[in-house]
């Protein structure tokens, strides 16, 4: 289907927006009036610019507060409309969005609204223009899409139809199934926006929190399927009012927007047999585990010392690069001293996938940047793409008969992995810049086929962190995305810690060992244990042991969780976890305790 986007969805000048929209591969654009008014370009110049870029101007919008008014107001409104028709002729645009009135002048009278919209449509038709009438969710008298349709049907003019906007429909909880009762040719335009499910005033929600499909909680594919069943054949157009996107990088947001439409079209095609003609990207190849986590260590062996304390052994050195492989069980950590890094940081994640080449094809079809292979001639092929925060994701087959293993590149250190309690990487937590969080969750969902879990808020002494885990279905891949707040404390600018959580099959034994070493564990305050005793009755013995070893505890309906944290080195620390029963969380309860302790130790 043709793909379009409203200029209001992006930051920048109108000229910058058009360039970014064309660059991301859109076919058309909705010109939001304010963008034109503020532009030094004349309508003719905008028309020429769009044409040069291969963009059609699919809609001009919005025209407000028109219908169901007294006669004198109607005259003024028609005069106002004639001016807009002139602008549209100069722009070469033939579709005007009229949104339902919010004016106190408007009366609750459908017949009057229909009569006046018919008049508007007659005038528009003289200019070859069509009117798409949209019910705003907060419209004074018309705020339901089927109400707008009843009025348009009553007006009965070929140049008058409706504009459907997913936000206005789904934010009010209206049943989108009613769309199928509207003849497809009377749906003049379709605007798409997702949104997080928030309990708030609908106007504020719409103007500040809309997001691209797949980034929020609405079932957009279901809505689009109804629209297609109704017979609509116009563009899919994004109209997203979002405070963050308004200040984000224009070109990058446009690509994020396009990724959302490619993924949406795919979901529609998979759900609707008659939409089989829609182009679909290759299916996601869902990763099946962690092959490794790679830390950039910039020389020094503080991280190596920490890994040794945790029980990992240095089992190999790369043949051509200053990279070490550390292992215990299936937990593999690469320490890379060859990448520029100020502080130790998490540079890459290796994901086990049944089909590395397929993973890359999927990523490319969703516009993810693939990374040049940094390979020595004998290196096993490792395909990689860049996640939105710059972390490299490598697609691997570790020690599988059908594929060269990346581990073959590591030789030298003859140490066998020491037997111990660590079994594998449980999860990896990445810190996202606050303005890339929605982009990141769409990326992990659409490119890797991971499922977003509940979004959480974690209190830090100097800010509030948002956190959301993305997981595969059996929990063997868990990536926690944490949003750094913008810190304004001079000594605590923000929190950009990242961590690798290793699973232990006997965390008590691990904790005893680390405790005995001294200096490795993050200290947990006694107040935490006092509260833990109030919240849970685990018996005096267990409570004493948790307190003594500095272990943290959580439980959910399915099981229990024990975990601990190491001190931080640069931007990185390690967590050791043990899931007991089917516990499926990350100990979010305990994150504020951990964050405060980290700040306290960073102060010293
Ligand atoms: O918030 C608004 O005013 C507004 C304007 C035009 C639209 O298409 C819309 O959905 C909302
Ligand atoms: Mg709209």
What would you note in describing this structure?
- This protein has an 8-stranded parallel beta barrel, surrounded by 6 helices. Strands 14-15-13-9-12-11-10-16 form an 8-stranded mixed sheet, covered by helices on one side. The chain has an 8-stranded mixed sheet with strand order 18-19-20-17-21-24-23-22, with helices on both faces.
- The chain has 17 helices and 24 strands.
- Helix content is about 30%, strand content about 25%.
- It is elongated and about 85 Å long.
- The longest helix is centred in the middle third of the chain and has 22 residues.
- It folds into 2 domains: about 270 residues, TIM Barrel (Alpha-Beta Barrel); about 325 residues, 2,3-Dihydroxybiphenyl 1,2-Dioxygenase, domain 1.
- Helix 1 packs across helix 10 and helix 4 packs parallel to helix 5.
- The protein is α/β, with parallel strands linked by helices and about 600 residues long.
- The model has no long low-confidence stretch (mean pLDDT about 95).
- 3,4-dihydroxybenzoic acid binds next to strand 3, strand 4 and helix 8.
- The site of 3,4-dihydroxybenzoic acid has 11 residues, from strand 3, strand 4 and helix 8.
């Amino acid at each position: 289907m043709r793909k379009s986007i409203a200029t209001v969805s992006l930051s920048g000048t109108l000229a910058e927006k058009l360039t970014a929209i064309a660059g991301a591969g859109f076919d058309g654009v909705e010109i939001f009036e304010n963008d034109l008014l503020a532009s030094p370009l004349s309508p003719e110049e905008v028309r020429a610019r769009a044409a040069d870029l291969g963009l059609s101007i699919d809609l001009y919008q919005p025209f407000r507060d028109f219908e169901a008014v007294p006669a004198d107001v109607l005259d003024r409104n028609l005069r106002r409309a004639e001016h807009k028709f002139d602008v549209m002729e100069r722009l070469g645009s033939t579709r005007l969005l009229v949104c339902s009135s919010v004016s106190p002048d408007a009366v609750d009278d459908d017949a009057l609204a229909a009569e006046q919209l018919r008049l508007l449509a007659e005038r528009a038709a003289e200019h070859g223009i069509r009117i798409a009438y949209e019910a705003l969710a907060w419209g004074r008298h018309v705020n339901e899409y089927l109400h707008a349709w009843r009025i348009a049907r009553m007006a009965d003019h070929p140049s008058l139809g409706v504009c459907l906007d997913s936000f206005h429909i789904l934010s009010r909880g209206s049943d989108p199934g009613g769309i199928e009762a509207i003849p497809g040719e009377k749906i003049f335009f379709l605007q798409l926006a997702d949104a997080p499910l928030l309990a708030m005033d609908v106007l504020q929600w719409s103007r500040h929190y809309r997001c691209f499909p797949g980034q929020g909680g609405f079932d957009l594919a279901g809505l689009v399927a109804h629209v297609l069943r109704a017979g609509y054949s116009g563009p899919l157009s994004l109209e997203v009012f979002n405070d963050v996107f308004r200040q984000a990088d224009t070109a990058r947001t446009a690509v994020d927007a396009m990724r959302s439409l490619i993924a949406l079209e795919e979901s529609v095609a998979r759900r609707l047999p008659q939409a089989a003609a829609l182009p679909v990207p290759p299916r996601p190849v869902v990763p099946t585990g962690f092959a490794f986590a790679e830390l950039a260590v910039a020389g020094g062996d503080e991280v190596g010392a920490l890994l040794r304390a945790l029980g990992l052994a240095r089992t190999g050195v790369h043949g051509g690069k200053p990279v070490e492989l550390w292992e215990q069980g299936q937990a593999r950590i690469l320490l890379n001293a060859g990448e520029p890094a100020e502080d130790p940081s998490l540079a890459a994640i290796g994901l086990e996938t049944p089909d590395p080449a397929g993973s890359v094809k999927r990523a490319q079809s969703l516009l993810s940047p693939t990374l040049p292979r940094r390979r020595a001639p004998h290196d096993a092929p490792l395909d990689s793409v860049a996640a939105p925060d710059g972390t490299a994701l490598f697609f691997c087959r570790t020690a599988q008969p059908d594929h060269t293993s990346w581990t073959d590149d590591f030789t030298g250190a003859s140490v066998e992995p020491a037997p111990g309690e660590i079994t594998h990487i449980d999860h990896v937590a990445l810190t996202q810049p606050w303005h890339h969080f929605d982009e990141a969750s769409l990326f992990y969902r659409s490119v890797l086929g991971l499922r977003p879990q509940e979004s959480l808020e974690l209190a830090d002494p100097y800010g509030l962190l948002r956190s959301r885990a993305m997981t595969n279905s059996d929990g063997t891949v868990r990536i926690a995305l944490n949003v750094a707040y913008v810190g304004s404390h001079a000594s605590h600018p923000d929190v950009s810690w990242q961590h690798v959580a290793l699973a232990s099959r006997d965390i008590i034994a691990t904790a005893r060992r680390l405790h005995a070493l001294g200096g490795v564990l993050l200290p947990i305050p006694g107040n935490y244990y006092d509260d833990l005793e109030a919240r849970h009755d685990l018996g005096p013995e267990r409570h004493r042991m948790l307190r003594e070893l500095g272990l943290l505890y959580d439980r959910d309906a399915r099981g229990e969780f024990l975990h601990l944290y190491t001190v931080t080195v640069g931007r990185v620390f390690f967590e050791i976890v043990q899931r007991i029963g089917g516990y499926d969380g990350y100990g979010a309860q305990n994150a504020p305790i951990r964050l405060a302790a980290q700040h306290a130790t960073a102060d010293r």
